[in-house]
Amino acid sequence: MSTRSWTATIVALAAGIGLALYATAAFLDSAAWVFGIVLGLSIGGMAFVLSATPQRWRLPGAASLVIVGVIAVAVAGSLARFYAIHTGQDYATPIKLAIQCVLFGLIAITFVQARQSGKDCRGTTGRFPIAYEHFAGHAWRNGLIVATSLWFAGLFWVLVWLFATLLRRMALPDIPYPAAWPPFIPALSCGAFALCVLLIRRHEQIVAVTRNIAFGLFTALVPVFLILSAGVLTILLLGKFLHMAYAVSASAALIGLVGLGLFSVNTATILIVLVGFGLIAVNAVIRDRKAKDRPSVFMQVSAVLLLPLLLLFAGFAVHAVALRIDQYGLTPDRIFGAVTTGVLLLWCLGFLACLVAGRRWAIYCRRVNIAMALTIAGLTLTLQTPLADPYRLSAESQYRRLTDGVADPKRFDYRYLQSKLGAAGWKALRRIAEDSGKADPAVVAEHLDDLHDHTKAWTLPLTPEENDWSVRAGAALADADRVRRVPATLTLPEDIGADTFHEHMAREVVGCGIPGRFECLITPVDVTDAPGSEFLLGYRDGDGTLTLLLLERLANVGGWHADVVLTRWKGDALWSALMRQDIQAVPPRRKNLRVGDETIELYQRYDH
Q1: Left (φ > 0), alpha (ψ -120 to 50) or beta: where does 549 sit?
Q2: What's the CA gap between 462 and 455, in Å, rounded?
Q3: Sheet containing 559-567, strands listed edge to edge, beginning at the edge strand earlier in sequence
Q4: What DSSP element (H or E) covers 69?
């Protein structure tokens, strides 16, 4: 098959996968299976385009189909367990599943490519040839191609959107935005991605050169990393060890990196990032047999000396996660963090054990890399099974902490079980209602009744930490010197205060009027169909970014509620209109505002 014919075939296949994604989302009722099939098809298609050639497509095709099936079943099962009963949305769960599945798909197809390369070189099928140079070469190549292709697909849609917007501005209002092309968006996106993958694969020299440049840059970081790490170790030996231990143990709950969770800036996470970068730098020194420009003896010695320091950092991170779990029990984030720190600690130990081989240490480190790749691929799937389901394990841990008398029932976060742990959390709440163990049954019953009376996340009782932020936000709002009134004679209802804000917005309101934080104002405006007035609270930072909160009275709650509203207007124009109070609602929807002769589309965050 010619290159042109192969390219047309792959792009057509990718477009077909895109249409299948749309059909799955449009016609399948199960949200769990929709996400599982969409994710499986996307990653399986990506794996096939990365690995197949006109002469070698059967093995990659079979492997890609296996990847589709494994991911679809695993993800659908995970989400089905999470949403077994209606528990509201948790957007972090699908994101974590997606990152884990991308890792699994890339690692799996890299092994298939390495086997294919080994067969081509050895001319045998009687063994399972996985040479490190093949594995490392394909791993680097896949990562570079995927990152570039995603960037290209994004650029493709930016270009389409710009032209569509330009045509609409040229008095052609019938030209639809790309959002009005639902069947074609996934097909065009997949086709653009596949085309970019094929184009990059045709320029292996560029990939190889970029790879060598990256190796050189990371290798140059090794002595710098070593000097800084030695400095930290020296400070610890000079008496700051206890301070370091306190800083690590007092940090917030670790949120796993490397695809197993989200990102949170705290001491433990900084240590994990350092260990991760350190291992990448050491691997840049190790390289593989195909890599040119063998690193100097000085760089190799620096890498060897760096390994014990990386183990020290990993040990502190393990201590942080273990202490946090011991103090507050398991949560999904802490489980992902524990898995991440465990993997990195095991990696460091494996590299250190390789040093006993003397000059051949790099060869054994390459074997450790292959073993750790298999470990990560296995863990990403294991965490999606009922046995290791982080949400089930977390719910069990929190249940035991309360019923064993470890947690104070007055301060126990019942809401976390209800809103963050899915069906497992609801099951734990039912068990708590039946048997509170050593906890005070009267106190437990009171909190459970509170949860029963509040069906919306924003009306749930606040945790102690959230309550502290909300009280401070209420104090800021009541201070006319910090939040400007428009008009200046505006008097706020007395019941607008601490109970109006939850933590995610209270932290911002607390910054009102503080130099270098936010300039804030509040003005009355009637934008909903509910009786009575509402207020718009606006704050903007030093860059001019404007955020609006709609404060409205909720009849079913008997109090005020704040919610973020969005608008396509940004910057000084809307802020000036708010300052002049030159703003009014536009009937009949009363979801738009008029500023002079202009109409602003105003909508709540989850309106569609």
Answers
A1: beta
A2: 14
A3: 483-485, 519-525, 534-540, 546-554, 559-567, 598-604, 592-595, 584-586
A4: helix 58-82
- C-alpha to C-alpha distances, 112 to 132, 163, 259, 514, nearest whole angstrom: 13, 41, 21, 57
The tokens for 498 are 């601490």
Token digits for 142? 């896949």
Query: Per residue in 319-371, pLDDT tens?
Result: 888 888 888 899 898 899 899 999 999 999 999 999 988 888 888 998 999 99
**CA distance linking residue 329 with residue 403, whole number of Å:** 13
Amino acid (one-letter) located at 534: E
CA angle 559, 560, 564 (to 5 degrees): 150
- Do 254 and 264 meet the contact criterion of CB atoms below 8 Å apart? yes
Phi, psi of 123 (to 5 degrees): 65, 30
Residue type, 448: L
Tokens of 548: 């609006």
Nearest one of 365, 375, 429 to 403, comparing CA atoms: 429
- Residues 50/67, Cβ–Cβ less than 8 Å: no
C-alpha distances in angstroms, 237 versus 231, 242, 268? 10, 10, 20
Q: Looking at this protein, which amino acid is placed at residue 59?
A: L
Matching residue, tokens 């949305």: 89
Three-state SS for 255-323 is: CCCCCCCCCCCCHHHHHHHHHHHHHHHHHHHHCCCCCCCCCCHHHHHHHHHHHHHHHHHHHHHHHHHHH
Do the strands 584-586 and 559-567 form a parallel or antiparallel pair, or are they unpaired? Answer: unpaired
pLDDT tens column, 393-416: 999 999 999 999 898 888 888 888
Task: Give the three-state DSSP class for 84.
Answer: coil
Look up residue 579 and give its two tokens: 């300052």
Site of tokens 């708590």: 432
SS3 content of the chain, % helix, strand, coil (to 5): 65, 10, 25
Tokens 């014919």 appear where? 5
Contact in structure between 546 and 538 (CB atoms under 8 Å): yes
Identify the residue whose tokens are 């995603």: 150
Contacts of 254 (CB under 8 A, 6+ apart): 264, 266, 268, 269, 272, 317, 320, 321, 324, 333, 334, 337, 338, 340, 341
Position 186: which residue type? P
User: b vs e for 256-285, b when ≥16 Cβ sit within 10 Å of the residue's Cβ?
Assistant: bbbbbbeebebbbbebbbbbbebbebbbbb
Stretches where the chain sits below pLDDT 70 are 1, 85-91, 119-129, 168-181, 236-267, 289-293, 452-468, 498-499, 502-504, 527-533, 542-543, 554-558, 566-571, 583-608
The identity of residue 516, as a single letter, is G
Calpha distance 560→565 (Å, rounded): 15
Residues 6+ apart with CB under 8 A from 96: 260, 261, 262, 332, 336
User: How many other C-beta atoms lie within 10 A of the C-beta of residue 188?
Assistant: 19
Residue 551 DSSP one-character state: E
Parallel, antiparallel or unpaired: strands 584-586 and 592-595: antiparallel
What separation in angstroms does the CA of 598 have from each of 430, 514, 570, 574? 53, 32, 14, 10
Give the integer Cα–Cα distance in Å for 87 and 221: 47
516 three-state secondary structure:
coil
